[in-house]
Amino acid sequence: MQPLIKVENLCKRYARRSLLGAGEELLALDRVSFTILPGTTLAIVGESGSGKSTLALCLACLEHPTSGGIWFAEKEIANLSENELRKCRPQIQLIFQDPANSLNPRWNALEILLEPLAVQNKSTRAEMKHRASFLLERVGLSPEILKRSANELSGGQRQRLAIARALALEPKLLILDEALSALDCSVQAQIANLLLELQSSLGMTYLFITHDLAMAAHFADEIAVMNRGRIVEHGPAQKVLQQPGNETTRQLLAAIPRMSNATLPVPER
Amino acid sequence: MPVLEIQNLHVAYSSREGTELQALAGAGFALQQGEILGVLGESGSGKSTLAAALVKLLPPSGRITKGAVLFEGQDLLQANSEELRRVRGARIATIFQEPSLALHPTMRVGKQVHQVLAAHSAAGNGALRELTQETFSMLFSGDADRVAKSYPHQLSGGQRQRVLIAQAIVCHPSVIIADEPTASLDPTTQMEILGVFRTLQRKLALAMIFITHNPALLAGFADRVLVLYGGRVVECGPAEAVLASPQHPYTRALFKSIPANLEQGTNARKMKLPAIPGDASSLPQEGCSFEPRCTERMDTCRERRPALVNFAAAHTVSCFRCEK
């Protein structure tokens, strides 16, 4: 089977200029390479500053990499023109951590859902409205949400709405950038179930970016661990978790709060 | 005598349309000196209202309609603003979630901690500077001087959180209330900060209320755990007991919905998590608040509200199924 996504030697440099003195360079991505098979989930785990979000932005074509290549369905997408990107963007959608920041607070749910359809000039208004209702149902929201504005919804409802909007253009790849991290534990379970169900019924491919290894363990087929812009470990989820080969992975595993720690006190610092 | 005792606390918010939302409906517990009480609650449970109400820092739309907050024997809810000012920050300190929002962006952090001391102490600058230095040494050891001279943006998330902790402990309070203090931190930093709290608990005999929605954070950390749902305490007991054998259906359902593949191996990977259906946005007016989402509900749960009863030694639950 051909991979849906292939990333090869991806590098991203940011130039940082301070007010006084020389500028410095930040290498946010350092020769990152991986592939994702269709219908599977690759989890990217790492702490802040590891480069995970930069990776998300590059894959979503919201940032141009400094060097290296990204292939989507065997088509090179890292250096496309804006016009060509327009054709490719509907297939790769991004869900952010904080839906409060990615959903327009002044719009109601209907307008939020219609926007991607309108931008892509896909159908008549009646058809779009019908699709909006269908999408809401698909993510477990009731149609009466259509009239409500984003800031009237709970965290879980907003994230469901963000997923519905992402699904509007029938993407093949969903990039979830800490999409569950800001939610309550019980709501994380609901949204995780929704995502798993969508994967199994629609064959969605996921790039699941998180610092929550426990959720990655549940969700992912493969796990890649990032540290300072590089992938330091990558393999099947089970293997990475049970036989970590890298110190970063071991540290991340050790830092997971576990219910079974109830009899082991947290060490003093 | 417990250092802090909350009795039957009721808090309501009035909305612009004039309706009243009951955020806390009779929450009560006692905090002993030197103990870490974990308050476990999700959105809508009333946990942040609790944190604010304890020191009377509710927003204008919030009102404490009933109850008492006894601090060292005195009811804070009856105190005047001068008495409250002496308590807040000095005797009861609060640490909130977002360190980047709580710190002044253009003031060095050493000065920001010094300010807290100066607001509550009549001592001279020399003495205050020494106390500030001591606090920084406790939290930053060898790095203390460099950090004290830094601005917030020059520090990492974990360091900023330690600065907030410094502000909280510098006046040697009896109680610290921390509302999701590690929510914005990476996992390794999170563990570090929990370790810092434990050190402070031991060194300063601090009593602490640690509010979180993540039960796993409380394992190996809290001495007792209290579970809030719909503005009420539904379970409370020794941490080991509540975390290892929860009794309330909500507590049990919550723990089950957390992925635990790391312990169980990967048999359950990519299977549906047993999530609690629905949400806590509309609570029933009568009967048990959790009844609409409860898989163990009985007829009586819709008619009457269960009281908090003793299930085992110091372990209370409010569920008809646990009443003998």
Low-confidence stretches of chain A: none
Q: What's the overall average pLDDT of chain A, rounded? A: 89
Sequence of strands across the biggest β-sheet of chain A: 6-7-8-3-9-10
**What is the annotated CATH architecture of chain A?**
3-Layer(aba) Sandwich
Distance between the termini of chain B: 30 Å
Order of SSEs of chain B: EEEHEEHEHHHHHEHEHEEHHHHEE
Describe the structure.
- The complex is a heterodimer of chains A (269) and B (324).
- In chain A, the strands form two sheets. In chain A, strands 6-7-8-3-9-10 form a six-stranded mixed β-sheet, with helices on both faces.
- With 269 residues, chain A is of the alpha/beta class.
- Chain A has helices at 52-59, 82-88, 99-102, 109-119, 125-138, 155-167, 185-202, 213-219, 237-242, 247-254; strands spanning 5-16, 24-36, 41-45, 67-72, 75-76, 92-95, 173-177, 205-210, 222-227, 230-236.
- Chain A is globular, with a radius of gyration of 19 Å.
- The longest helix of chain B is centred in the middle third of the chain and has 18 residues, at 187-204.
